[in-house]
Amino acid sequence: MIKPQERFLSDNQGYFGPKENPLTEAHCNIWDWDQLRMIKVKRSAKVLPLEENQECLILAQFADHLSPQVRSITVDDDGLLTEVSMDPKEDDTLFVAYLPFLMIKALPQIDRLGPGVDLLSYEDESGTPERDEINILKALPSHPNIVPLDRVVLEDVESRVIGFATKYIPGGTLADPTNLNVPFRFEWLQQLTRLVDFLNPELGIMHQDIAPRNLLIDPDTNKILLFDFNWAVSRKELLLDSRDDGTGVVFTLYEIITNDTHFTSIPHWDQHINMVQSISEWTCNRELDSDVSKSRTFLNEWVARRNGDMERYINAPNRLTWPDLPTPPDHSVPFQLGNTRDGEPYMRTGVRSRRTAMKLGQCCSRWERPPRSRLLKTAKNELCI
What Enzyme Commission number(s) appear in the record (predicted)? Predict the structure, then answer.
């Protein structure tokens, strides 16, 4: 189940006038991870002040009750719903140009995963580090502390690559409140540090998002498992400030032991390892199988040994590599983006909105689905019949 505080993501805000003026009209696109669709919230800057990020709270009141055809909502100064729109022009969802799976000449083949299933190198729409995740997972050697790649997922119209699947590990992450009663083992810390020492200086992979929410415990082996290589990189130019894995391990252990999550609200570029290492006493709010002092001593010694590991990461002897990613063919199809001053159509290629791609007849995957609450209500009613 998606946590309520993680369900909505504010994509971007637009002000049609000075944002300091409370009467200025403001629009904000919000992504709903539950329904996998974008909804635009419209109202004055008084209701949607940029610094307060209130738009997600506003939409949360209405999201489960809106028709799937609704593209935008308008609220008054009290945040009450006054209008809904089904106009497709209100939909700013971007077109994701998934690559055809069978373009053998255009896409380098990395491996053959099984009968009739090949793994190809491809780039997603955003051009962000997520594009490398499937390549990293495939290239990683089998490891007892990594959730492995299981399947490549294709859509069923044109057999385009739309994602991948991994084995489901029950029990939830170490960040789940239901796991606070699970004693944290010292050996799990040892396993995590050994894994980081394997990824960074040996393979040249920086995970960049080590946190309790990305750690599982395998119920079969009772070993710690790392997943979500969404931000992982293998090149120096893609490294992000303060996202090195050593810092991630330190903040992770602090959060696990103390159950203090306030550092997660600090942007990663403002997080520094000394913020938690300089705290003289970590108040233990979780059952451990050893003293806090033992874990901290081990952690401090490990951090000290890692001094200079960035250079080792850059010069990793077994660095994982893969072919350069191709430009999606769909982006080569020209589309009209307004008119020139002379009234002539202004044509361009590249990224476009989903509604533009649909007008051009391009293959568009529709991910929208009913809210979970509606499905639960339907299932309950069926049981009562």
Answer: 2.7.11.1
Most confidently predicted of 45-59, 175-189, 317-331: 175-189
**3.30.56.10, 3.90.190.20, 1.10.510.10, 3.30.720.10: CATH of 177-315:** 1.10.510.10
Residue reference for tokens 């255009």: 106
Instruction: Give 219: exposed, middle or buried? Use CB within 10 Å, 0-12, 13-18, 19+.
Output: exposed
Domain segments of the chain as ranges: 8-93, 109-166, 177-315, 333-383
Residues β-bridged to residue 206: 233
Give the other-Cβ count within 10 Å of 326's Cβ: 15
- Side chain identity, residue 45: A
Cα-only R_g, the chain:
24
In terms of pLDDT, which residue wins out, 205 or 325? 205
pLDDT digits (tens, 9 = 90+) for 266-301: 888 888 999 999 999 999 999 999 999 999 999 999
Q: In the structure encoding, which two tokens stand for residue 317, read together?
A: 């002897």
First to last CA, the chain: 26
Which residues, 6+ apart, have CB-to-CB distance to 263 below 8 Å? 251, 254, 255, 271, 275, 276
Q: What is the pLDDT of residues 68-108, one digit of tens each?
A: 999 999 998 888 899 999 999 999 999 988 765 533 333 34
Task: Name the nearest CA neighbour of 322 among 151, 109, 101.
Answer: 109
Give the model confidence (pLDDT) of 366-383 as tens digits: 888 888 888 777 666 655
Average pLDDT, rounded, for the chain: 83
Token pair 């451990």 in the structure block, residue: 288
Residue 282 tokens, joined: 């970590």
Residue closest to 43 by CA, chosen among 29, 28, 30, 32: 28
pTM here is 0.76
How far apart, in Å, are the Cα atoms of 264 and each of 1, 84, 179, 243, 259? 21, 35, 18, 12, 11
